[in-house]
Amino acid sequence: MGLYVEAHIRADMDELWSRTQDPAQHRRWDLRFSEIDYLPRTEGEPQRFRYAVRVPALLTVSGTGVAAGERERPDGTRTSALRFVSPHPLCPLARGSGYWRYVPDAHGVRFLTGYDYRPRWGVLGALADRLVFRPLMGWATAWSFDRLRLWLERDIGPERARVNWLAELAVRALLFTGCLTGLGPGSAMSLFGRFGADVAYLYPLLLVVVMSLALFKAPLTCTPAARRCLRTPADRTGRAPRVLHTLEKHG
């Protein structure tokens, strides 16, 4: 089953194209890549590239790929497609392919992607992919798309957006942990002074409310969130573009 993610971005098409097609800008917002570098190419050939993903303090996996795009189409949309392969034995993604579509509307651009890949490590790898890696890749893609949206719509740079996300995550974790272990009824009631005894019976309800907010409250508007993106195609624009098939002989 392939992955699909769509974000609606209120931005200029050319600006969106630049921040997704320029490797220096792409790697700033896309959580899935640490490095993206174009390789030299001859006229008329698709663009080849090299990419790397670093897991801090653990390892770096790398691979290569080939990409092509259609910047001017009769219907006003744009597309780009790629195929990639990683020979690294510890990379869970052996090879794959995908596409981006840019669909303008009255309020901005629908920016969507569909991609699929072949997992490594045989049957065990397929099981790990189904349970762990594929959901993680879907989340990382959606989170990255929303970080790109914040950059274009609100001028919140990718680095700042990551700090916002980590800070909000830390606050939620502290609240949840405090409710579970750190804040006993006695210390909590002392916050209410002489009214503590009167509101003691509300303490369990208060814990439930705070824990629910920590877990389920919508993220702040300045924080990237995967939940803001669509995960299934709403119409036929979710189909793979023809340019993807032209890359088969180069992949």
From TrEMBL:
**UniProt cross-references to InterPro entries, sorted A to Z:** START-like_dom_sf (IPR023393)
Keyword annotations from UniProtKB, A to Z: Membrane, Transmembrane, Transmembrane helix
Name the residues that span the membrane: 200-218
Gene3D superfamilies, sorted: 3.30.530.20
What this protein is called in its record is: Membrane protein YndG
Organism equals Streptomyces griseofuscus
